[in-house]
Amino acid sequence: MTDDIVEARNWLGEELDCSVCGSRDVKCCLMKACVEDRYAKRIDRFFDWNPEKAKEYLGHPYFEVRAVAAKHVEAELLPHLMHDRDETVRWSVAARLPQEYLTGMRMDPDREVRIRVAARLDEANLGSMIDDPDYYVRQIVARRMPSAMLPLMMSDSDREVRKTVARRIGEEWLVRILEDEDASVRLEAAMRIDEQKLPLLIDDADWRVRYEVAGRVAPKYLKRLLADTDVAVRTLAKTRL
After folding, report:
1. What tens digit of pLDDT does each residue of 177-217 get?
2. How far, in Å, are 17, 28, 208 from residue 205 at the CA level?
3. Closest alpha carbon to 159 in 194, 206, 193
4. Cα gap 164→169, rounded to integer Å
5. Cα distances (Å, whole numbers) of residue 124 to 6, 66, 81, 99
6. Mapping DSSP to helix (H, G, I), strand (E, B) and coil, where does residue 33 land?
7. 228 CB-near residues (< 8 Å, 6+ apart)
8. Exposure pattern of 27-54 as b/e (b: 16+ CB <10 Å)?
9. How many CB atoms lie within 10 A of CB 11?
10. Contact (Cβ atoms closer than 8 angstroms) between residue 129 and residue 143
């Protein structure tokens, strides 16, 4: 969408008039860069041209102005917006907030804000987000958390989170994951586990898991897979024999 398509109006829907604008000491251009415009792209360009003005607009009544201003002010000013009434502003703040304050946003009511927090938070503090109510937040935590702490997430209620855990957890925990109720989680563990432990999965209920077994298990176990109910598993076992 180009700038000249979106009509120039302020956040209240009123037509903009440069002749009555109080911002005379700044670089601006109607339909291009205007802090009074409701169109975020023009607000952003205004602060690109006048970054020193951003701190003057942190209390502006229009959330887009506050959110964009937060991208341009000094980081030490951002804590004042941590609990802004609008989630767009808090999301913008979470992108740049210093680490010593970021922990204060772990319980933000908006999932998008918490997602950004989880993506930036120091690894040492990620453990405090393993019980977040949103599965995607927990998935990000599982991707970034030190592997030594991942056993705490082995029983997560969401299979995508458990799959992420299975990809990163220490090998000594993989046998436990082989007991997971979801086949896709067991498959992630099967792809990483030592081949000596693969016989534990030779009778797994899911053909994908048994196929992984057939591809790596020691040859002496392949005869049991020649009679597998799945043709792909039987074929692979026969080929390896």
Report:
1. 999 999 999 999 999 999 999 999 999 999 999 999 999 99
2. 70, 66, 9
3. 206
4. 9
5. 45, 31, 24, 11
6. strand
7. 207, 210, 214, 234, 237
8. ebeeebbbbbbbbebbbbbbbeebeebb
9. 16
10. no
